[in-house]
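Page 47, continued from p. 46.
Same chain as before, 320 aa.
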Amino acid sequence: MIMTPITMWIVIAVACFILLMIILYYVPVGLWFYAIISDAKVGLLQLVFMRWRKVPPSIIVSSMVESTKAGLHLNANELEAHYLAGGNVTNVVHALVSAQKAGIQLDFQMATAIDLAGRNVLEAVQMSVNPKVINTPSVAAVAKDGIQLIAKARVTVRANIRQLVGGAGEETILARVGEGIVSSIGSAETHKEVLENPDLISKTVLNKGLDAGTAYEILSIDIADIDVGKNIGAELQIDQANADKNIAQAKAEERRAMAVALEQENIAKAQDARAKVILAEAEVPLAMAEAFRNGNLGIMDYYKMKNIQADTSMREKIGK
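Result:
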């Protein structure tokens, strides 16, 4: 197919436009000009290399312009390296600018380390300026008089920039504060003492240095609410009394069983003795017959013995 001159010029124009777009993509002249008029030191060749290294030049240039206008002297290569390491360049630069305005000592190395550690460095700087309030869950503790108290506290913390890397988080703060509340209430003589002076808990817990090794600095601990719970001491005494009762009942049952066993044993012995008596009585007629045959027993002796037996039987019946 033969193209007309007009069609040919259209194809050439489209091809030139596409080629221009490709060149402008890899050679971001607009960003380079933006950096020049903003006094940010970023070279055109460096922007081209950023495209090849899969680094968005717009992020680096805008961050360089922001830091330059804020009076910070950052290096584009360091920003690019931080991006390649998986960091949030924009967040780091925002944090550095905010820290400088707030008078907080934070250098680029520390900021990038905090960012790569997975913490929000900008939020940490903002928390250093505007402390955060953490509400603890309900903490139950028992005073020495056995009364349970349920307390809630508000912990005001400020980010400790120097310990954000490797420092413990909010969970540790809440656990330590809860432990301190339990210890303070448990050392009180009565629950009334705690209810009258709840600030004693705050002072005691605050003086224990609970923020050691954490990413926060505790500014204050305020008791928000205290409720009276169960009488744990009375419940323990009731449980102990029930246990003692069960033990006594078990011992009584044991003694009763031993008595029944002893009675059964005595009955068995009596029955055995009676059986022996019956056997002995059964041998009496045999012995009497033998005595008659041998001439050792006369008929008068036999009648006397029968009279004695009848008299004894009569006396037993009268006695019953």
